[in-house]
Amino acid sequence: MMVWMRRVHYSRGFGVQSPSDYAFVRYVVNEHYPYYAYSDLQKEYQKFPKLSHKMGRLYFRLANYFQAERWTPLSDIPLLYAAYIRRGCRKTRIEPWRQQEAGGRMVCYWMMGDDLQPLEDVCRQARENSVLIVEGIRRNRTTKELWRRIVDDDHTGVTFDLHYLGIVFFDKRRIKQHYKINF
Questions:
Q1: Whether the Cβ atoms of residue 84 and residue 61 lie closer than 8 Å to each other
Q2: CA gap 71, 73 in Å, rounded
Q3: Phi, psi (degrees; rounded to nearest 5) at 85
Q4: What is the pLDDT of residue 102?
Q5: DSSP 76-128
Q6: What is the mean pLDDT of residues 64-71?
């Protein structure tokens, strides 16, 4: 609740000037419509906590929005999230990162950890239609600093800080911008 209260000024797209970024925040990140698969997944994975399902629903909406050919985990992706992603876009394949592959629409998932090499490879090879989702951006001082370095990196474009995770777009045609969003 404290996180939400501190970020109340960043709710529902407030302060987001770009029409495409506003639409992303309003209709993907903060969409509250009960999609068709939410209740089925909630019943199927009852043992998971409420926050995990909240994050899973976000991954569902992201998968539905991006319609990516593949999601590439740079670290282990939780089973619950994989289920939400597959229901969000049936054509999406969840495949491990291979350095030579960076073409096509791709979403990379990374839980912040010690091994930075895959992250550096993705940032160097990412195309304009690639997206990086970084979970755990506020876990400790080190992850906060690493997230700040990702945001400031020359390879990244528009970034979104959702407190629990960050979303990085690599489309350099868009003006580089960083948004804090109350999710």
A1: no
A2: 6
A3: -65, -45
A4: 54
A5: PPPHHHHHHHHHH-TT-EE----TT---SSEEEEEE--S--HHHHHHHHH--T
A6: 92
pLDDT at 13: 58
pLDDT in tens, 110-132: 998 766 777 777 877 788 888 99
Q: Which residue is it, tokens 């979104």?
A: 160
φ, ψ dihedrals at 158, nearest 5° = -75, 135
Can you tell me which residue has the tokens 């495409």? 20
Asked if 164 and 135 touch (Cβ cutoff 8 Å), the reply is: yes
Helix ranges (H only) for the chain are: 2-6, 19-24, 38-44, 50-66, 79-88, 117-125, 141-152
Q: How many CA atoms lie within 13 A of 161 on its CB side?
A: 18
CB within 8 Å of 154: residues ≥ 6 apart: none
Instruction: Compute the C-alpha angle 182/132/134, nearest 5°.
Output: 55
Q: Looking up tokens 């050919």, which residue turns up?
A: 69
User: What is the DSSP pairing of strand 70-73 with strand 93-94?
Assistant: parallel
Instruction: Please check the confidence at residue 74 and state whether its pLDDT lies above 70.
Output: yes
113 within 8 A of 156, measured Cβ to Cβ: no
- Using CA atoms, how far apart are residues 40 and 62, in angstroms rounded to an integer? 18
**pTM, 2 dp:** 0.88
